[in-house]
Amino acid sequence: MTISYTRTDMLPAMAPPVSQRGLVKWLRENMLSTRLNVALTVLATAFIAFVAWNIFPWFWNSVWNAGSLAECRAIVAASAGEGASGACWAFLKPWWGAFIFGHQYPVSDRWRPVLAFGLLFVALAPILFAGQRRNLTIIFSVVAAYLLLTLYLASAPGLAFALAMLLVAGLVAVSQVQPERLLWFTLLYPALCFWLLWGGSIWSPIVAMAGFGVLYAIFRFASPVIGFAPAAGAGVVAAVLWWLFADAPLAGTLQEMIPVDLLRVPSDKFGGFLLAIVIGVTGITFSLPIGILLALGRQSDMPIVKMLCVIFIETIRGVPLITLLFVAAFVLGFFLPPEADFDLLLRVLILVTFFAAAYLAEVLRGSLAALPRGQYEAADALGLDYWRAQRLIILPQALKISIPAIVSSFIGLFKDTTLVVIVALYEPLKGITHLVRQDVNWKGIYWEPYIFVGVIFFLFCFGMSRYSKYLELKLKTDHR
Fold first, then answer.
1. How many domains is the chain partitioned into structurally?
2. Helix, strand, or coil (residue 130)
3. Domain interval for residue 146
4. Which residue, among 185, 194, 206, has the nearest Cα to 140 in the 3D structure?
5. Per the domain annotation, does 88 fall within a domain?
6. Per-residue CA distances from 159 to 155, 165, 247, 318 (Å)
7. H helices then E strands: how many in the chain?
8. pLDDT digits (tens, 9 = 90+) for 292-312
9. Are 271 and 104 in contact (CB under 8 A)?
10. Of the ranges 223-237, 367-381, 414-428, 466-480, which one carries the lowest mean pLDDT score?
11. Helix, strand, or coil (residue 2)
12. pTM
């Protein structure tokens, strides 16, 4: 008689075969799946090996400490033999300040852009990581360490150094208690940044920001009475009147009573990555809200509003950015009064912002069109008016859909800041590298400045792309 046997315990889990896991599996599926892929993989590997074989010695023989290109070549010849080549990074020592701040920005005031750049991350943190105390603490700690080191190296005045560290410490405390209050610093940062970079009286940006307070106050009190759109229009008119007639006299009076100012630095002294960051951050910050309004206007049922938005978007998108920069530099002055002193950098900022806003408007229009009609009907069923429906239901979904395209536009805008060299602004890619090669000591150097600038641009753009990926995954609440 045969007795049946039933196992009473489970066999332990076994690892999958080597061919079905890890790097081997990825190679089989992506690079060695077909004969064509095998051939392409072999050719690509051979090409990469060939390039690396020829470039590696150039990097390996790098020289970091020399007084001229000829001295670099002599050091390479002495260490690697006659005929050897090597990268000469020694040019960064005398020219790093020009690459970062521009060759004309006052050396004694370089602590001001350093402080403005550090506080930029403090201002962005409440938006990028809203309510996340741990991330806010990490960012503020890094910024504090950055300012502690860079302000010391830039020989910042003791009072400015102490106030900066006290401000960051206070913001760290606020982030642990009421992180939503950090948005007030974000709103005030543009005025602070303007004062730090351009200098002059501190009351000019303060009084200018008060114009937005006038706009908000009139809108807040008038909207329950006359409605959203008329109240917004009345607020804009009041703010414009404030800036035209009350701004300068009030700022001058306050400066006479309490004189607080910094050395004024005109825009033509800006250059390097300081110029690129100012143009990029300003364009990114202001183009998004303008692009949202243009997208909503193009979707509007009001014919005049729709027509104006279509004309603006198609006109801007139909013209290359380089043409708009020429307009900002040479043509726009003909349409201004003779006594008008319209700063060149301000003109460039305005047209770059409009250029980016026109492209963002089309990105957002596609996202709005992609939303199901039921979302609009649901907003109507809830009894929401147009603006509340857009703010609470429509725009959050449209912005989530368009995150990759928006960030791609931002990255393109930041890289396009190098085009301002055509209007005599010394951006890092062409403007400063051209000055380096004009120096007798470094005449003949070519690849190294471009590689240095390219690496810095890559770090900025890669950081933006990684954050967009993080934000996209965080907001991905749909079910797969």
1. 3
2. coil
3. 110-198
4. 185
5. no
6. 11, 10, 28, 50
7. 21, 2
8. 888 888 888 888 888 988 898
9. yes
10. 466-480
11. coil
12. 0.84
